[in-house]
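Bit of a strange request maybe. I'm writing a small parser for structure token strings and I need a real example to test against, not something I typed by hand. Could someone generate the tokens for this chain?
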Amino acid sequence: MKRQDYQVTSWCRRMMKDHVEEGAFCIDATMGNGNDTEYLCRLAGRTGHVLAFDIQEAALAATEKRLKASLDYCNYKLCCDSHSNMKKYAAPESADCIVFNLGYLPGGDHTVATQPETTVDALSQGLVLLKKGGMMSVCIYSGGDSGFAERDAVLDFLKNLDSRNYLALVTQYYNRPNHPPVPAMVIKL
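Reply from user aminoacidic:
Good idea to test on real output. This should exercise your parser:
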């Protein structure tokens, strides 16, 4: 393995790859610049579908540009809406994979970031949207501009999931300074 394979997004993608097959339905709850959206589009393939959410027009524009340049098919819908409105766009138990990268748009305005209340609501909705055997990936960023309230709210939410219905895995970069990201996975049993 290469050093970059241990970055939080690469680690989460390894887990996504095990849960997303051709024809899958996936949700990128926080599209940002479209990196995970593109990855999900490729995994789901021509017969799959990806919904991606962000509240910032700049995120949609960057993602659309990325997808048009890298894919020769369109298996996605980009939504300028909060991830806390996912349930308006998808049916219960329809999603194979849902991805969250919390915090702010890389290269964007740091004052516009995911918030504890809407994120916990979106996570709760996501659990309803997930199929049995589906997975949710959550990259939790804290410190600096992001603060710790969202991290603590998300970890508390995950800790209190019913273990008969969900497996929540939380790992940490134990020897990294400056509040490293926390990758978490939830599998619907």
